[in-house]
Amino acid sequence: MTLSACGQGHSGKASQLTTVTVGGIGSDYQTWKHIATTPQAKKLGLKLDVKEVSIGKQLNDETANGDIDVNAFQSYAYFKAYNQETHGKKVAALGTTYLEPVGIYSHKYHNVKSLPQRATVAISSNPANGARDLLLLQRAGLIKLKKGFNTFGTVRDITSNPKQLVIKAINEDSAARYLDDFDAVLISNTIALEAKMNVLKDSIYHERANASTKQNINILATTKAQKDNATYKKLVKLYHEPAIQRWIKQKFDGTKVEVNKSLSYLQQ
């Protein structure tokens, strides 16, 4: 017989493992499918039921409604934007996992300095990720943004554009398909991996893990009511287990840069 407690996972007496439903997208789904099979998960008393969802907002919606216990896919900036924009239930952060660098890719140019005047550049149409893309263009020295630019910033906040870049928003899920149509395309690592590209090797510029990119660190999230759930917090510890990190590094060729920081680091 299986006993269940709302928001606390499902405990089977025979196995003494607590079932936690984890939702993931793309490479995060692959990662958690692997983690579910590891002895480290069993040692922590966890049985992971991993589900794949293809759309970020839908995954957050299902998590906020309690249909999925914990999700793994989003940056802290995306998480904040979701909670700001949704009129329904919110999600809460459990802990940090990694930085997955966004890269600037080009089939025509080998570095950002060689981009010509009026080069066409594609960024994400998702508001939070589009703002992240603009910040990366600023770090690359291509544009300047107004002081205080944040997750909710847009192209209207560009204060200097010396190359007169023509910046257009595209569906980020299809970003890799636009490489022949634009001079440069900003692509998230999840999408780049699906297109068999390595951000550390194939991009002409990419994010680095430092204080300037801390809002882009990925997190595990749950419902607001379960943000202090001790069982769910075990998933954060589980993700950072050395054996699991070795697998992630090998599987994704080093493109998921581990970040094991407190939530307060993101909130500073």
From TrEMBL:
InterPro entries: Lipoprotein_NlpA. Belongs to the NlpA lipoprotein family. It comes from Lacticaseibacillus pantheris DSM 15945 = JCM 12539 = NBRC 106106. Keywords: Lipoprotein, Membrane, Palmitate, Signal. The lineage of its organism: Bacteria, Bacillati, Bacillota, Bacilli, Lactobacillales. This is NLPA lipoprotein. One of its GO terms (cellular component) is membrane. SUPFAM superfamilies: Periplasmic binding protein-like II. It is a lipid-anchor. Signal peptide: none annotated. It is found in: Membrane. The keyword Phosphoprotein does not apply. PANTHER family: D-METHIONINE-BINDING LIPOPROTEIN METQ (PTHR30429), LIPOPROTEIN (PTHR30429:SF3). Its main location: membrane.
